[in-house]
Amino acid sequence: MNSNLLNETAISLQPDICQSQSAQTELNSYLQAQANAIAPKITPLVRSSIEVERIGFTRNASSTPYMVYKIDGRRCCTFIKRRTFFDLVRVLLKLKYSIVDRIRSLTSSEYFGLSVVTNERQKYIPSAYLSKFFERYNQVALEQTKPQQCDCNDLYDMCLHSIAILLQPSILNSTLICSRSSCILTVNDPPLTA
């Protein structure tokens, strides 16, 4: 595999933007190798397909993250481990806003959005984006979606494939920029040593 292609090179995930068929083939083989690498299994938040209504924090001293969702018309609530919640919000920030800074604090707004303070900036994530992201993360985990090229026309710019790509351990230092028509992945792998 060409190491120059993997070191800080932008690769388009939409087939008609790629310059050559070999670049597409190389990207597919790279992503397949990453998917087959020994990695921790992504675990779903809930063991069923869900429709998330809201994300928030409890109002007691512990401020435990929770998720209210529907399964087959029944309303349910589950608590989320704080570490898992922070990790998922980091993935959402990277996916939606290309922010990779360390999260310093999270607070829930009165409209169930999320205010995120990082080392360099403050960002508000609307409730609709939080809900869709947590739904799709759960779906990726349930179906064990493999990272691959896609041309998904997603209203929220966070298709299952882009989430699966960012959840790969070896892609943590990469940048993924998605719009409704394409995703661009920049892989920042460390240089190979002999």
Structural class, please? Answer: alpha+beta
Mean pLDDT: 76
User: Biggest β-sheet: count, sense, barrel?
Assistant: 3 strands, antiparallel
Q: Can you tell me the number of structural domains?
A: 2
Main sheet: strand order: 1-9-8
SS elements, strand count: 9
Low-confidence stretches: 1-18, 187-194
Order of helices and strands: HEHEEEHEEEHHEE
Q: What's the helix count?
A: 5
Share of helix, binned: 25-40%
Described by the principal axes of the CA atoms, the overall outline is: globular
Summarize the structure in short.
The chain is of the alpha+beta class. It is 31% helix and 26% strand.
Topology record:
Elements (H helix, E strand, L loop, with lengths): L2 H4 E6 L8 H16 L14 E7 L7 E7 L2 E6 L2 H16 L5 E6 L5 E5 L3 E4 L1 H17 L16 H7 L8 E4 L4 E6 L6
Helix pairs in contact: 4-5
Polypeptide structure, described:
It contains 5 helices and 9 strands; from the N terminus they run H-E-H-E-E-E-H-E-E-E-H-H-E-E. It is of the alpha+beta class and 194 residues long. The strands form 3 sheets. A 3-stranded antiparallel beta sheet has the order 1-9-8. Strands 2-3-4 form a 3-stranded antiparallel beta sheet. Strands 5-6-7 form a 3-stranded antiparallel beta sheet.
